[in-house]
Each structure stands twice: as structure tokens, then as C-alpha cells.
Amino acid sequence: MREAKNRSVNFGLTHNDVKESKKAIEICELDLKNSRESGNRREEGNNLGRLGLAYSHLGEIRKAIEYYQQAVEIFKEIGDRQGEELAFENIGLVYSRLGEIEKAIEYYEQALEISCEIGNIEIEGAVIGNLGIAYGFLGETGKAIEFYERALKIARETGNLTGERNNLGNLGNLCYQVGEIRAAIGYFDQTLKMSREIGDKRGEGDILKNLVIAYNRLGEMKKVAEYSEQELEILREIGEKYKEGQTLERLGLTYSFLGEKEKAIERYGQALVISRELGNRRQEEILIEKLRDLKKTKRADRYYKQKIGVSKDLKEKKGFKLFCMGRK
Fold first, then answer.
1. How far is it, in rounded angstroms, from Cα 266 to Cα 280?
2. How far out from the chain centre does Cα 212 lie?
3. Which of 222, 223, 300 is nearest to 262 (CA)?
């Protein structure tokens, strides 16, 4: 789901601002105070919007909504329809994060009405795409497809390659969810092409993962291996070490299924190296077990001996509590 971007109003915060969250809030509050003292209502609205965005990034959603709603009132008062639209759109986004989808739709519709009124077709396309996401969450597949296709048409008309890519990907996800796997793959193929065209490496990696999942659902394991290898190349390029390890393990499993034992051993071995680099001792034990089972040779025996050492190490640390940080 996209976040409403900085257009004519200054809602934007940089990544560093978000990382230094306390500093960001302090700066926003100081700017708000100054704009109120100077009587600059437009800047007051902008600064309220920035505070809403800052609190949204911090996960304090109710506070974010409070600031966005204050911004709406100011933009209505001064007749700034674009500022009002952006605030409505951001309120929709934060209600989506809360899982209050009907509320999100209510605000998206208000944002859409304004974007149509001011004649900004690109903003209109973005809001329509968000409505597609919202209806998809509600399980209203027909409406979701309708909005995605409208948003896709606008993105193509305006030359918005990123918007085109996003809507193609969303259509693919929706097809996958309703079991239309071949149709999903068709959309994912187009999405992959667009990601490469715009040079979005991270997006390319994400869509390759989607293709892996779709082909796995069909049981086409050669395709799973093909797209997993492409995903692996991207992950190495962008430095995603943890995900690289996961993909290597998946490749080991896939090649094992295909009967290509040497390739399976190679990929499991590379995954093992990464698990050691990251200090993941339990995963290290699992990989050693897989290597041992694959090929009972001297080489495999060496891995088995290493496994025994890992098992002892884990037993010695039995008293420690393990904290799961979650998966992305």
C-alpha cells in the first residue's frame, strides 16, 4: 500500500527523520508552534500533516489520525482542496493499518471526490488503487479488480510506470488469492518486466518471490528453481543476507526434490555458511542434518560431526530464553 506522497504540501519526512523519531517530532512541533504564532494557516495545516505522518511512522496511529483531522479542518477553512485531499488520503491509509477497512474506504472516497474535482488524474489513480486494496481486504474481489483495472488504465495514460507496476502486482496477488494461479503468473510476469524497466531491484526480488510461490503451488519445481536462482542474484546484489540464506535453503530443498543432489548440497552448504555468519545455531543444526541425509559420504560425515558439536552447544544454552523478533 502506498503512502500519500508530498505534493503541494510539505507532509514529507526523510528516512533519517523517521529513524530519529524523537527529534522528528520535536522539529514538527516547533514548526507547528512557529506557524501558529505567525498566523500562517497553510503552514499550520502542513505541519499538522507532518506530525500525523511522523506519528504514523512511529505506529501511534490514533495520534496520527488526530493530527490529520486537525489538518483537514484548516485546509477546509482556507480552501486548500489539495491539502484536504492529501489529509483524507492519509487518514484512509492509517485506518487501513488499524484494520478498520470500512473507515479507510470512507476517507478514500472523500479523497477521490476531491481529486476528481481538482482534475489531478495521477492522484485520482493512486486513490483508486488504494480503494482496490481496501476492497481486496474485505474479500470483495469484483470491486477490487474493478478499482485495480481503473488505476492501471490511469497509470498507463499518465506514463506512471511505478503505478502501472504496482497495480499489475496487486491484480496478480488477487488472482492468486482466488486460486487463478495462471492468471496471477501472467500479471507477475508483467510486474517483473516493469520492475526491471524502472530499475527497482527490491521490487524485482519481491515479484520473483511471488513467481516462486505461484509455480510451487502448481508443482512446477524447475520453474521454482529458475526464479529462485534469479531472486538469489538480486538478494546478493542488494545485501539481504538473511533472505539470501532462506532462498539458498529453498533451492537446496528444490534441487533435492528434482534429484539434483550435487546442486542441493552446494546450496545447502552456502546456506550453512550464512547461518553461521548470522549466528543462527538452530538453523545451522537443521542444515547440517539436511546435508547429512542428502549424501552419506565422507563429506556428509564431516557435516554430521559438525552437527553433533552444534547440538551440544545448544544443550548447554538450554536455560536461555529465545526471543522471536518476527518475520517480514
1. 19
2. 17
3. 300
Which residue has cell 492501471? 152
Number of other residues whose CB lies within 10 A of the CB of residue 4: 23
d(CA 126, CA 150): 10
Joined together, the cell numbers standing for residue 249 give 535453503
Name the one residue in this structure whose C-alpha cell is 559420504. 297
Residues 170/150, Cβ–Cβ less than 8 Å: no
Query: For 275-283, what is the mean pLDDT?
Result: 94
Say what angle helices 41-57 and 21-38 make with each other, to 10 degrees. Answer: 160
The answer to whether 187 and 168 are in contact (CB under 8 A) is yes
Q: What is the pLDDT of residue 324?
A: 28
Give the model's pLDDT for residue 68: 96
318 with 286: CB under 8 angstroms?
no
pLDDT for the residue 21: 67
pTM: 0.78
The CA distance from 198 to 187, in Å, is 17
- Residue type, position 264, single letter: A
Report pLDDT for 10.
41
Q: Is the dihedral of CA 146, 150, 156, 162 positive or negative?
A: negative
Q: What is the Cα–Cα distance from 172 to 200, expressed in whole angstroms? A: 18
Contact 72, 60 (CB under 8 A): no
By percentage, how much of the chain surpasses pLDDT 90? 77
Contacts of 263 (CB under 8 A, 6+ apart): 251, 255
Do the beta carbons of residue 89 and residue 71 sit within 8 Å?
A: no
For the stretch 254-261, contacts whose Cβ atoms lie closer than 8 Å and that sit 24 or more positions apart, written own/partner, are 254/221, 254/224, 254/225, 254/228, 255/225, 256/290, 256/294, 257/221, 258/221, 258/222, 258/225, 261/294, 261/295
Whether residue 191 is predicted with pLDDT greater than 50 in this model: the reply is yes
